[in-house]
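Async update (no meeting this week)

Hi team, since we skipped the sync, here's where things stand on the single-chain job. The sequence we agreed to prioritize is pasted below, unchanged from the tracker. I ran it this morning and attached the output directly underneath so nobody has to dig for it. Comments welcome in thread, and please keep replies under the output.
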Amino acid sequence: MPFTELCIYQVKPQKVEEFEALMHEAKHFLEKQEGLLLLRFSKRGYRIDMEQIKEGLPPLQLTRIVKCVKYMLYWEFDTKENYGRAQKNLYNSYWKSLERCLVVPHDKYLGEELFGWSSHIVD
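Output:
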């Protein structure tokens, strides 16, 4: 059963370029982790409220930075053990440099996949 992590980073506005450069550098390192099934990295750029949802309208683009710029890293592993080893590898390489760019320590949401779907996977 795949094991997943969603990590939320709240980046200091003046550290956005440094953080993005570090993540692009780390991408090649992250992709080489044993048992990695999926890796996605996104920058929050939109918001949506209930009125928009009820009307089926698209989300609104964010136009200003209030406190921080938020990023989401999602990665999925074949086992918890491979995930644990990847975390150790990340901690020993990029962790401290990334943390210096953050307003607060990053949040991690961990769990086992209950179901998945992708239009890119053909049965």
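Quick observations from my side:
Helices lie at 16-31, 50-55, 80-91, 95-99.
The beta strands are 3-11, 36-43, 46-47, 60-61, 69-77, 107-112.
Reply here if anything looks off.
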